[in-house]
Specification:
Blueprint lengths: L18 E5 L3 H13 L3 E5 L2 H11 L3 E5 L7 H11 L5 E5 L4 H9 L4 E4 L4 H15 L9 E4 L2 E4 L5 E3 L2 E3 L3 H11 L8 H9 L8 H15 L6 E4 L3 E4 L4
Parallel strand pairs: 1-2, 1-3, 3-4, 4-5
Antiparallel strand pairs: 6-7, 7-8, 8-9, 10-11
Helix pairs in contact: 2-3, 6-7, 6-8
Length: about 240
């Protein structure tokens, strides 16, 4: 099935429309964004403050959240913390009027999966949401497929990751990054390749987001163990089994 733009329509695993929660106190922006997302065939719920966002998330159970960083009752990072308690794995796209590296990294470090800076093009928001939805597995998936590199395993269907039998919890973006590395064991992948495959765009030239997420993976995959994720200075990153 295709969307009006000719792209493959994204659906939940049960075939129902993808659910998007839009949280912003600018009514005109929320209306415009909601209209664009409905055009994708998605089901939309909106909220204009943090408390309303948490209530909506609890009842609506969205597949992805668009979250403004500045809300009248609390900031986006506080809202994100509350959302994560309700829906630990839901991808979150931040909307921010701030464009410094520190602000962007703060949002990602707090658990956000992506961001766009205001003013933005609707097409850009839709494209980034489509990427997050695919990575989170809201669309139909392939048959069972388990990747294994050494004692590290990744189930592409259940999103379960283990190392040495120990379960490892990853965010949607961390999972997609690890999957890309594990599909290419022993192969050095450049930052540009990783940005193109995992984020589906050049992230405004901010390749340091790759370094950030590699560090997240290392803390979870390699912490207290012999490392499997390696850096090749000036070339990129690779994963390989222990020898």
């Amino acid at each position: 099935m295709t969307s009006p733009q000719g792209r493959t329509e994204l659906l939940r695993p049960d075939g129902s429309p993808v659910r998007v929660l839009v949280v912003d106190d600018e009514v005109s922006l929320t209306d415009l964004l909601s209209m664009a997302l409905r055009y994708e065939g998605w089901e939309i719920r909106s909220a204009d403050d943090g408390a309303g966002a948490v209530r909506a998330a609890r009842s609506f159970r969205p597949d992805v959240v668009v979250l403004d960083m500045m809300l009248p009752d609390m900031d986006g990072l506080a809202v994100l913390g509350r959302l994560r308690r309700e829906l630990p794995d839901v991808p979150v796209l931040f909307l921010t009027a701030k464009d410094t590296v520190e602000d962007r990294i703060a949002g990602l470090t707090a658990g956000g999966d992506d961001y766009v800076t205001k003013p933005f093009a609707l097409e850009e928001v839709v494209a980034r949401l489509r990427g997050l939805i695919r990575r989170a597995g809201a669309s139909g998936r392939r048959g069972d497929s388990v990747l294994a590199v050494g004692d590290l395993t990744l189930d592409e269907d259940s999103h379960e990751v283990t190392r040495g039998g120990d379960s490892i919890h990853l965010t949607a973006t961390e999972f997609e990054l690890l999957r890309y590395l594990m599909r290419n064991p022993r192969r050095v992948l450049s930052k540009a390749q990783i940005l193109d495959r995992v984020w589906s765009y050049d992230f405004g030239g901010q390749a340091n987001v790759v370094e950030l997420y590699i560090s997240y993976l290392r803390r979870k995959i390699d912490a207290g163990r012999e490392p499997m994720i390696h850096t090749r200075r000036g070339a990129g990153y690779l994963i390989k089994p222990l020898t």
